[in-house]
């Protein structure tokens, strides 16, 4: 019987470890969601869907997972795994997480909505998440505008309602999750390999990537874009899609370069 390759074992190991952390995160979010349902019942108000709650919080969580991913390097290389196998395993694990987590979230959200539908005093809130981008306007403070755009990218990236376009909604969430993971991984790898100054340089790369990713996805989905990046409004949807793919390839290439000959710190 053919034995699995080393990177496949690494991928399964990393996926399972991070999947357990993700289940803990989803469990906490479910607890918060149930609490809000109870509160809404007592007050007779509406409540966000579980999918929308996780959509807002998951980017920060997955970004942290990406940062933690670099900590696996010392463990695997110390046990005889090559840096290439670590990289390939980590990349596959991150892809797996980006696909599985949105699906689990959607299934839990569907059950939650069925339950809420049986409660007379509670209704489901349907916020227009994508309209938040219109609240950020240029005020001459370039740094402030950039910070606002990054915060918005973490909290309210481009959104598709799963009730209207299920596959597209899952695809957009998976894409967001994957890119946030890669950015966290890249930034930690930058600090690990090149020190503080080099790491700060990759923080800048991550910021630019986030803003570009959000803008391009909004162009693809025909959503409003921030005033700060209105000059990109002319980009065709097909070109925007290709550019998002190239951004992902760039992040993957940078991570591979940074981890290829990374010294193992004792």
TrEMBL record:
<feature type="transmembrane region" description="Helical">
    <location>
        <begin position="238"/>
        <end position="258"/>
    </location>
</feature>
<feature type="transmembrane region" description="Helical">
    <location>
        <begin position="21"/>
        <end position="38"/>
    </location>
</feature>
<keyword id="KW-0812">Transmembrane</keyword>
<protein>
    <submittedName>
        <fullName>Uncharacterized protein</fullName>
    </submittedName>
</protein>
<feature type="transmembrane region" description="Helical">
    <location>
        <begin position="164"/>
        <end position="183"/>
    </location>
</feature>
<feature type="transmembrane region" description="Helical">
    <location>
        <begin position="94"/>
        <end position="116"/>
    </location>
</feature>
<keyword id="KW-0472">Membrane</keyword>
<feature type="transmembrane region" description="Helical">
    <location>
        <begin position="50"/>
        <end position="73"/>
    </location>
</feature>
<feature type="transmembrane region" description="Helical">
    <location>
        <begin position="190"/>
        <end position="212"/>
    </location>
</feature>
<keyword id="KW-1133">Transmembrane helix</keyword>
